[in-house]
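hey m, so remember when u said the tokens were messed up on ur end? i reran from scratch. heres the input so u can diff it against urs
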Amino acid sequence: MSEQHSQEEILSMMGNVEVAAIATSAGESLRIRMMHYAADESFNIYLATMKGDPKTVQLTNYPSISLLVHQSGDDINNSREAEITGKAVFVRDQAERARALKIVATRSPVVKYLTESGNSSLLDCIKVMPALVKYRVFSEIVQGMPPTVIEFPQNRRIVSDWQLLKMKLKNWYSEIRAPFLTASAVPVILGSAIAWFATGNFYWNFFLLTLLAGLLIHMGANVINDYSDHRSGNDEVNHEFVRPFSGGSRVIQAGLLTPLEVLSGALLFFALSAAIGFYLAWARGPLILVLGAIGLISGLSYSGGPFSWAKRGFGELLVGLNFGILMTLGAFYVQTQSFSWLPVVAAISVSLLIAAVLYINEFPDYTADKQVGKNTLVVRLGRNKAVVLYAVIMLGVYLAIGAGVITGVMPLTALLGLITLPLSIRAIQYTRRHYASSFDLIPANALTITVHLATGLLLTLAFIWEALGAQRLVYVAITAVVFTGAVVYMYRSIERQKNVFLNLKQAVK
């Protein structure tokens, strides 16, 4: 360290500046953002932001980081700055995390609100361990004087291959949008339960293979959609997306995966799904290939290829058909080696709901989709008129369940699916009030996903109940507890997230 300026002087200057410019790697690009920070006496820099924030993801996947703290003087000659380069790590120790958030909260109103309201668990806390600190004063720079340099050789560590592997796996977890894979799990579970009810038989090995094939084709569809939206420029111009409901995974935009990696991953998922499909066709019947081919072609051409169904306004219909009726019927066929109208009628509500999930998530993407010519139904109708169709879809779910029971196609226990009607009404109300505000529409996005999961599981429970009979109500009760626990956990998490966002909006006004 040169003797021009003391460590205490540098820390004092940094203590008077509340925000720093944070530069991180995003693949082949660099991203810069102003963030509130706090520093300790060892020049460790603490940052805090919402979990899953793109900047946080970049910090942890590409831990090399540079910060610039600039303080302007009344005279330009008195302007000074500190440049810190180092490595970023998550703060895992609870005591250190609490101290870090406490000092960052003195500068950041967001962090202050979340810590004081008991919601600090929603924050990622990052520590930047400095490898080099450079301190410059403008008047000294123009005189040719070198900057004051402080080195921390103990922090010049190399990221291990194991750490890099964990980062890459985490990136792929984000890319496949794992929490939303319930969209393919629900129809497979429902179709298999209907088969059990209809025949009294249940083949666990074929069920698990069908479920895996459904999840893989869903992963492939999610990933190829990200690739296609990147190629079209949709994701790059989308600035209104709301994580994690719309705007895709953003891993390409964040530089976490390259477009080639994403395309290769999509093709791999489709290939694995096709391999399982060929086996099931050999073991259970060739007609499964027809349903599998429809799903595969639909996934490949949803937002890309010669058809680009999403751009033509047929994406919602295609997703509803594939992740509702076709998957339910396919799961039923694998178990029974036959077709029936029962799984088709039972899956209508699931088809409508997964279409509604996609549809409501298109509201925040409206501007970007319109700009690149992705003419979804929301773009074609306009957000105002699109609210009416959303209400029709959501209410149509319960008309389909009621009609199925009244006509005698579905058992009386299927009326369990009506339990979610109050949640659907709340989602419709939020959409009517906030269709033009992506931030305020979050509860509707979340509630639609909850209704899809809950309704699908309630219908599944109905058929399991019928298959087990009154003599085995204990097993029905256990299944009900498990399903209810999953739905309640999701619902409470969403409610908590919604309240935090709404209160946070008021706190930073």
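this time it looks ok to me. The longest strand covers residues 123-137. if urs says something different then somethings off w ur setup not the seq
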